[in-house]
Specification:
10 strands, about 230 residues, about 25% helix, about 30% strand, 6 helices, three-stranded antiparallel beta sheet, alpha/beta
């Protein structure tokens, strides 16, 4: 598939690429990947192009899911399979059972739900057996260093609603819930019993819609769910 024909983001998250190869996932086959906030499938394209993997993507945005289906239909099938669902991650985790994924990915999605909902989501993932024992986890989220922190109306600790008239990032009316690294590790250890933790601080300058230079601040965590 020519890159210009891909709808939406063209490449996987650079830290998902590192996660994939550093964990030697390219050497393994017959793995099931489950990604919440999959968007147009840009991350899942990577394992899908390696033979005999199954990828499952969930996103609330119907347009992005249609883009994902378009993109994957254009990739030569090499024994891998894919499924995409238009669904709120919280509803999916509550209603679906026994997926037993080998890789659980949450890439820049948990910022858009309240902390209490995120914890309940993790509990549902565990009780409904959405992942296997010793599954690998990839999670990326925003920190309080991000320029969005404090932008809009405060509705809870480290949580804001961006004003509907603020078009800096195209996230008008969206919730932004921020986490520190230590806070997230505590949550993951309590509700997923995660181990083998690797934490990466990612701060970089970016260009906003109004041509202002802004600071994006994320943390990526890898780990093994026990």
């Amino acid at each position: 598939m020519h890159i210009r024909k891909i709808k939406g983001l063209k490449y996987p998250d650079e830290y998902f690429i590192r996660f994939f190869f550093k964990n030697r996932l390219h050497e393994k086959r017959h793995l099931r990947y489950l990604e919440f906030g999959c968007g147009n499938g840009n991350n899942l394209m990577l394992p899908y192009e390696y033979a005999d993997n199954e990828v499952i993507g969930i996103d609330y945005n119907a347009t992005l899911i249609e883009d994902a289906k378009h993109n994957f239909k254009s990739i030569k099938n090499n024994g891998s399979s894919y499924k995409f669902y238009i669904e709120d991650m919280r509803i999916f985790a509550k209603n679906y059972q026994d997926i037993y994924c080998d890789i659980l990915s949450l890439s820049n999605i948990i910022n858009y739900i309240p902390k209490v909902d995120f914890i309940k989501f993790l509990q549902n993932c565990k009780s409904n057996k959405l992942y296997k024992e010793k599954a690998k986890l990839f999670i990326r989220f925003r920190t309080p260093r991000d320029f969005r922190f404090g932008l809009g109306k405060r509705i809870d600790k480290q949580t804001y609603i961006i004003d509907v008239h603020n078009d800096i990032t195209g996230e008008q009316g969206a919730m932004n819930c921020f986490y520190t690294g230590n806070e997230m590790i505590d949550i993951l250890r309590k509700y997923l019993i995660i181990k083998d933790i690797k934490l990466f601080n990612i701060d970089f300058e970016n260009l906003a819609k109004n041509d202002d230079i802004i600071l994006n601040s994320d943390i990526v965590i890898w780990g093994t769910i026990s």
